[in-house]
Every structure is written in C-alpha cells, then in structure tokens.
Design brief:
DUF2891, 15 helices, DUF2891 domain-containing protein
Length: 362
C-alpha cells in the first residue's frame, strides 16, 4: 500500500456490469450485448475535443462522464439509446437487468452536470452537431415514451442537456443557409428527421415547425437526385434516401408521392429489388470502410419509411420494400462483435431498423 493512501476513502470504479448470454436466435439480445460491452469501455477512443489550455488534457471519462464509451461521444449516445429501446420493445429480455444497471451508472445528475459544463467550454458551441445531438434527442424521446418510473426519472435527469441542445439548435437553424448533403455525420436530412420525431414526441411544436419549415425550404424544389453516384467510399447515410425519408415526415401524403416522383424517378414500378445494390465492405477492420455496412442498414430503414408514407396501391412500394430487404439482409449479417470498428455502433443502426423506430407505430 502506498504511504499516506487511505484505501477506504479512495474513489472506486463501479463494478463491471455482468452481461448475460443471449437467447438463441434473439436478435435484440445480440445488439444489446454489443452496446453493453462498449458504453463504459473508455478505450480505444476518438474524441472531438477543443483544447483551450493544458487543463483540458483529460481522459474521455473526465471530460464527458455520461457518454465516453463506444469509441466516440455520438456512438456512446446511440448505444445508450439502443439499450433504452430494448427495454421498451423487449421487456422480457434477459439483458434488461444489465441494461438497467448500465443506464443507472451513466444517467446521474452529476454526470449530466459535467456534460453541460463541458459544452460551456470555449469553442464547443457546435459540439457533435447535428449527428450526435440528434441522437441525444432521440434518446430523450425514447425515455419520454415510457411510463416506467425509472425511465421517466432518467428522462428528467437528461432534461438540462436536452434543453441546451434544443436551444442551440434553434439558434443554429436560421443561420444554416444550405443543406448539408454528405453521407456521414454532418448530414442535415438525417438529423432533422430524428429531431422532428423527438419534437413530436415531447410536444415541442415550435421546434417541430422550425425544422419542418427548414426542410421544406431546402428540399421542396429538389429533383433528380443522383442516386447512381451513391454510395461514396465512406458513407453510412444515403444523401438521396435520407432526404426522401425526411420529406415524408413534413409533406402531406399526396404531395409527397408527387414530389418523390420528381426527386427519385429511378424507383421502378415492376417490383424489382435490384435497382439499388447494397454497398460492399472489403475490409471490416477499417473504421471508415465499414461505414458501408451502416449505409446498408440506414438505406433499408429509409426505404421502409418512404414506402410507409405512400398511398395504398402505389406501384413503387414493392420495389422499395424489395430493395430494403436486400439491404437489410446484407447489413444485419455484418453486425457482429468480431471487429470493434463496426461493433461499437452498428448495433444501434440495426436496432433502429429491426424495431422500425422511425415509422409511425414503431
């Protein structure tokens, strides 16, 4: 023992959460295990961190003590969302005691106060905007939907961080002159979709209207999206399909169906599924190349969402669902714990798809 060190007073790390075995053929258990194994795994870690002086040279868990695992802040946030989602969609899962323990460890008033203090640092106004902040609001929406007292308590603990993100997003939106049409984190269409779903869940009509008005201003006149140029080599979101998945949220059905014909005239009416080919990952140990497993999962849920918003009997629906199934098959087969480059985040995308999170009633 070191001289002068009183072990009784020394801070202790919480005991690791015991992760149970998955049920045979239980998809949700497999995804939950991936999140449980990483939400409190601090390293390896890639931080997006503005350092103002030497005092900012700290570990990830010291900087952002709620969301420091799963390699980066945004993956940690949607890893926590995945766990909350499983509590709601699979209440009999054997993972639930471990999930409750993991979320209880993360969602404390002290941790969220430290997250807010981190955002107060100079140069951090746009921290994780819009991808990570959209997922944080999606996490809040998941908790807000629940009647469980425990989840309601966590929702209240997260409220100060939620309010800060909403306020800063509302200040940012009028200044955003153009849509961000990337296939990675900064894409605006994907983030707007998650944020609109959040705003509707919590009843923030002013925020919902601001997002919907911006989406319509950006995209109502778009035509002939160059789907043949997708995916680029590091995409995990489709610029074209995510835009359409956003617009079905903010347009009346008939208007959306007409708009979609102008925007994506490539969608066939013969029910075929080979009009859009899943992305190919040639090295799943490469953190950027493995993004394409994510693009297959997010394309699948986007096409399901688009199809769900079309009128009954629309001849494009079978082709959308056929292509969605092909992408889902490819994407879900790639979700495993073999390589941390994919395992720290792909489970969230898979859960969003399999639980139909973005579709009404999902």
């Amino acid at each position: 023992m070191l001289a002068g060190c009183d072990t009784a007073d020394a801070p202790r790390e919480p005991a690791p959460v015991a992760i149970p075995e998955a049920r045979p053929d239980a998809v949700n258990d497999r995804f939950a295990r991936l999140a449980l194994s990483c939400v409190h795994q601090e390293y390896p870690n890639k931080i997006s961190h503005v350092m103002n002086d030497a005092r900012d040279a700290q570990t990830p868990s010291a900087l952002t003590p709620a969301f420091y695992g799963c390699f980066d802040w945004h993956s940690s946030v949607h890893g926590h969302w995945l766990l909350a989602r499983i509590l709601k969609t699979d209440p009999r899962s054997p993972m639930n005691p471990a999930i409750l323990a993991a979320l209880d460890r993360s969602f404390t008033e002290q941790n969220i106060a430290a997250e807010l203090a981190y955002l107060d640092g100079e140069g951090r106004k746009g921290f994780e905007r819009p991808y990570g902040t959209a997922w944080l609001l999606q996490l809040v929406a998941e908790l807000d939907e629940s009647d469980d007292p425990k989840l309601k308590a966590w929702r209240e603990i997260l409220r100060p961080l939620e309010q800060r993100i909403v306020s800063e997003t509302q200040e940012w939106l009028p200044k955003l002159a153009y849509p961000i049409r990337l296939g990675t984190h900064n894409q605006s269409a994907f983030a707007f979709g998650l944020m609109i779903d959040y705003a509707r869940q919590v009843g923030n009509s002013a925020f919902e209207k601001q997002l919907a008005d911006k989406a319509l201003a950006f995209h109502r006149g778009d035509v002939n999206c160059p789907l043949a140029y997708e995916p680029s080599g590091e995409d995990f979101l489709s610029p074209c399909l995510m835009e359409a998945d956003l617009m079905r949220r903010v347009m009346p059905q008939a208007e959306f169906a007409t708009w979609l014909g102008r925007f994506l005239p490539q969608i066939p009416v013969d029910g075929s599924g080979d009009w859009l080919t899943p992305g190919e990952v040639r090295d799943p140990t490469d953190g950027k190349l493995v993004h394409l497993d994510g693009v297959n999962l997010s394309r699948a849920w986007a096409m399901e969402g688009i199809a769900s918003a079309l009128p009954a009997g629309d001849t494009r629906v079978p082709a959308l669902l056929a292509a969605s199934q092909a992408h889902a098959t490819s994407g879900l087969a790639a979700v495993s714990d073999a390589n941390y480059e994919g395992s720290h985040w792909l489970g969230s995308f898979a859960t969003y798809l399999t639980t139909k999170r973005g579709i009404a009633g999902g």
